[in-house]
Amino acid sequence: MIVFATRLAVLGAFAFATAANAAPAAPTAAKPATAKPVAGDPSILSSDFWGDWNKTKTSENFSALTKAVGCAHKSNTPKAGGSQKIVDLAINRPEDAAKFLGDATAASNDAVSANALATVVNMVTSPKTREEAAPLVAPEAKARVEAMTANLSTGIQGLPGIYLGDVPQPKYEAGTQAGEGSGGANTGGGVEASGGSAGAGERASVPAGYAPVVGGSMGCPVR
Amino acid sequence: MIGTRRTLLIGGAASLAGAALSPPAWADPAAAGAKPAAAHFKPPLLGDDNAPKRLVVWGSCTCPFTAQLYGLLQKIVADMPQTASVEWRHFPTHAPDPALHVAALGFAGPHFWGFAFRVLGAIYAANGTFDGLTAEKLAAFAKAEGGSEKTLKAAYADAAKWTAVKEDLLAGRLLGVTRTPGLFFNGYFMTPDGMPLDIAAFDKSLRAMLKAG
Questions:
Q1: Is A222 helix (H, G, I), strand (E, B) or coil?
Q2: Whether pTM exceeds 0.90
Q3: What number of other Cβ atoms are within 10 A of residue B146's Cβ?
Q4: Do the Cβ atoms of B187 and A123 come closer than 8 Å?
Q5: pLDDT tens sequence across B120-171
Q6: Are the C-beta atoms of residues B121 and A14 closer than 8 Å to each other?
Q7: I need a surface site. Which of A24, A130, B65, B69 has the fewest CB within 10 A?
Q8: Which B positions 143-172 lie with beta carbon below 8 A of chain A?
Q9: In chain A, which stretches have pLDDT less than 70?
Q10: Which chain B residue has the Cα nearest residue A52?
């Protein structure tokens, strides 16, 4: 109980410090350490990682992976007006998924890239789409794709289906969700009209119920 | 497969609900039956394994915007425990980041989040400066989470943890993450330009999205 209480205090303090309602000043990007590095310093401990990563990101394999399954080009599209840009990465057409899976398995040449690709595949295709794509995969890639999708279905990496909404809503006892989401009405300034509507079988440009936020965004750039 | 075991890691909610805070399987690949050569950590999850709507965040331990997003998401998961969960993915951006992510992986279940939130909280409080994240400070964070300097050293010595961080970084880059935090939901990349500055509006919109069918 003491542990719980302590945890609540710590996490509560964190939430308080960063809560939406606290309206904190916009933070600035992280700044380099100026202190002289010492043993056990996380920057020193990380140096080998960065050395390895620098080799990876300039390697031919990285280029091949990016060409095969990279989604960055989708995110680079200009945004409309001043509203928050949202990018739909999902691959829904079985024909597209078949090509994507074939390219993904061909580009993977080690365990790290295989696991990274498994994440990407799980994030942009649903099990249902992969199943529909299976008969459409090029013959030369079939064995590789079958091996990969079988691996995905074991749940080694994440929970297949949940990323793309294939997991049905669990049934809870009546009333247990009564309070959930209260106060979340999407009203007031700062957002555009709620999007997410699409015709039957179509995928909306933004998630259902979501209204893109206006006023700009900030983040820490990739190293 | 999805078990019934809860990995709700929000202290207050968990203690009130009386949920068992058992260490999740990802913390110990050997115990989970994974082969060391193929060791791959199940990503840390904030919330209930069975929550049907999962937000996935590629974040950096030294990014104040990641801290800001987690401050918001932590409250959302607490308010909507049967609906939403948040999956952590590593996306180191600054010099000390990889070691900080690896250090956090040295802790299981709620202590992972406890350690990560302490680091993020320190970054936020220091307005994005990471000078203060010294070995001594990290050891203090470790102790507060029931660990010690030994816990950190064991994490640093575990190659699989470094690999897990690299795999996430690579996956994030392939997905198009160019700045943190990178928030994903249901195949949508919600923050390709980073964290919206209007946090209150972002909070409302996320809640509306999670409430929608």
A1: coil
A2: no
A3: 14
A4: yes
A5: 999 999 999 998 999 999 999 999 999 999 999 999 999 999 999 999 999 9
A6: yes
A7: A24
A8: 144, 146, 156, 162-163, 165-171
A9: 1-39, 78-81, 151, 153-161, 165-201
A10: B166
